[in-house]
Design goal:
mainly alpha
């Protein structure tokens, strides 16, 4: 700045030399006034108080007092003080964030340790296609004990519950009862029907070839007429004849053959035959004549403990699996799937078998008919798999 002023002073001297004589006096006075102000500015201090009295002489008291009032009322920001408060708030927020991060890290570490233990247990007990029966028994000793107890009690049925025959009969009566024609179905009427059915069963059991009494024939005919059904006495006699334990059945002593016959009788709703076969099996066991089939027991145990681990359930049968097969072949596939406890696919094979044989009309939608009822549940089953 000193160099600039020095150069400017030289410029002023040069200008003074070329300035006309008539202007020299004014020019010199201007330079003197400027230098005076320059010296005053150089001696000013940032902390110096404002001389309002001097300004009053120049600008007038009214104007200066207004400026002074505004000046004194103005509040300057203390940036140093604000900076300290802001830094303290930022530091507090930072400390809270860091503490939360450390807490979350500790929680994640604990969760990872727990997950590691669970993963190790899952890997230890994982069931694969290579898992053997011995592996399952070793991992689940309580399951093995339960299965051994069930085998000892001849309890092979893992899915079906005990069948209440009278309850099923009563349910069938209630579904087909027409109150407008037959009146109210009270307890007395229910008992009367159940007694009649029991009487028919006893007669068929005592003599499968005996003729049905005429009053019973008339009674059944009346029922068929009321329900709009076609009579099939030949079929009834055939079913009654098959729903008994034969001499050939009593010759069976192998437990595998016995329980296969019991399961088949149950599926065909031949409950008298199934009950008689169970009594035959229990009598053989009590006398010690029951032939134990260890290979079959091992196979049944393995099926009950591992079959469900590897079966993809609820997958419909592919159309190509049904093409070109006869009703008998489809029925065999249904039996095979049921033997693997894959009852979903078994039901689809059986439905296709009945359609193939003509027992089911796939276009029938009347829920009062067998075809319509079967079609309804088949469509529901297909919808479940989508």
């Amino acid at each position: 700045m000193g160099r600039a002023l020095s150069r400017r002073a030289n410029t002023w001297e040069t200008l003074a030399k070329v300035m006309p004589a008539s202007k020299q006096g004014d020019f010199s006075a201007t330079i003197a006034a400027f230098k005076k102000r320059q010296e005053k500015a150089a001696s000013a201090s940032l902390d110096a108080d404002i001389d309002f009295e001097a300004y009053k002489k120049i600008l007038g008291a009214k104007e200066v007092n207004a400026i002074k009032k505004e000046y004194e009322a103005f509040s300057y920001t203390d940036f140093e003080s604000d900076k300290k408060a802001e830094l303290a708030a930022l530091q507090e927020a930072l400390d809270q964030t860091v503490a939360a991060i450390y807490e979350q890290s500790a929680n994640l570490t604990a969760a990872a340790a727990e997950a590691s233990v669970e993963l190790a247990e899952l890997e230890r007990t994982r069931t694969t296609l290579e898992t053997t029966l011995s592996d399952v028994i070793r991992r689940n000793p309580e399951l093995h004990a339960e299965l051994e107890a069930r085998i000892a009690n001849e309890d092979w049925d893992t899915d079906s519950k005990p069948i209440d025959v009278n309850a099923l009969r009563l349910e069938a009566i209630e579904k087909n009862w027409d109150a407008s024609t037959l009146g109210t179905l009270d307890e007395n009427a229910q008992k009367e029907f159940l007694d009649e059915i029991e009487s028919l069963e006893q007669q068929s059991a005592s003599s499968a070839d005996a003729e049905v009494p005429e009053h019973i024939v008339n009674y059944i005919s009346e029922w068929h007429s009321l329900l709009g059904r076609t009579e099939d006495f030949a079929g009834l006699r055939q079913f009654a004849a098959a729903n008994t334990v034969t001499d050939a059945d009593r010759e069976i002593t192998n437990e595998r053959e016995l329980w296969s016959a019991i399961d088949m009788a149950t599926e065909l709703c031949m409950f008298d035959r199934a009950k008689g076969l169970i009594e035959h099996a229990e009598a053989l066991k009590a006398s010690g004549d029951l032939v134990v089939d260890e290979a079959w027991r091992d196979a049944e145990t393995k099926r009950m403990t591992t079959a469900r681990h590897h079966q993809d359930y609820n997958s419909p049968v592919a159309p190509e699996d049904l093409e070109g097969k006869s009703a008998e072949e489809l029925a065999d596939l249904a039996t095979e799937a049921a033997g693997r406890s894959d009852f979903y696919r078994a039901s689809h094979y059986m439905y296709a078998s009945r359609v193939k044989s003509g027992d089911i009309n796939p276009d029938d939608k009347d829920l009062r008919s067998f075809s319509g009822f079967a079609n309804h549940f088949h469509n529901v089953s297909m919808g479940m798999a989508q």
